[in-house]
Amino acid sequence: MIYLLPRIWIHAIWSTKDKTPFLNPAIEKSVHFYLSSKFEEAGCQVRIINGMPDHVHCLFQQNPLKSVSDVIKHVKSGSSYWINTQHMIKEKFAWQKGYAVYSVGSTGLEWVQHYIAEQKNFHLKKSFQEEFNHFTRMHGLGEQAVG
């Protein structure tokens, strides 16, 4: 008998350490591309990655044979190591310790993809903390402090 394991779409958000705006326009595309390659390496299909200088949003299909925490750890640790060994910025780069993840149903995929694609426009009106609070309220978690 063959069992098909379900594939769940995940919207993950995390920031740079101390919300330092490390991901400047000169390196942003390279970092997003590398993040995507680390997700793919973990067996996760990526739909979109985008963000701001102090945080990223990733929409990916979870590998059912791995935990979300193992995938995020793989992506964050591999990418911070890569950013530092490539000397992309003068300071030592690091991601924050935590992250937020939300499952996304098939009916919400297009909305989340559009939302991630429009990060620069969205943040003309809302801070990262306001955005994070919006997501925690939307998912019934109440307001949380980022950091």
Give an account of the 3D structure.
The protein is α+β, with helices and mostly antiparallel strands. The protein has one domain (9-138): Transposase IS200-like (Alpha-Beta Plaits, 2-Layer Sandwich), CATH 3.30.70.1290. It contains five helices and four strands, in the order βαββαβααα. A four-stranded antiparallel β-sheet has the order 2-3-1-4, sandwiched between helices. A hairpin with a 2-residue loop joins strand 2 (45-52) and strand 3. Helix 1 crosses helix 2. The protein is globular and about 55 Å long.
Helices, strands, pairings?
Elements: E1 9-15, H1 25-41, E2 45-52, E3 55-61, H2 68-85, E4 100-104, H3 109-117, H4 119-122, H5 128-138
Antiparallel strand pairs: 1-3, 1-4, 2-3
Helix pairs in contact: 1-2
Brief overview, please?
The chain is of the alpha+beta class. It has helices spanning 25-41, 68-85, 109-117, 119-122, 128-138, and strands at residues 9-15, 45-52, 55-61, 100-104.
> Using DSSP, what is the number of strands?
4
Return residue spans where pLDDT drops below 50 for at least 5 consecutive residues.
none
The CATH architecture would be 2-Layer Sandwich
How many whole angstroms does the radius of gyration measure?
15 Å
CATH structural class? Alpha Beta
Quaternary status: single chain
Strand content: 15-25%
Q: CATH homologous superfamily - what is it?
A: Transposase IS200-like
Helix content: 40-55%
| Average pLDDT for all residues | 87
Query: Which structural class matches the secondary elements?
Result: alpha+beta
Per DSSP, the total helix count is 5
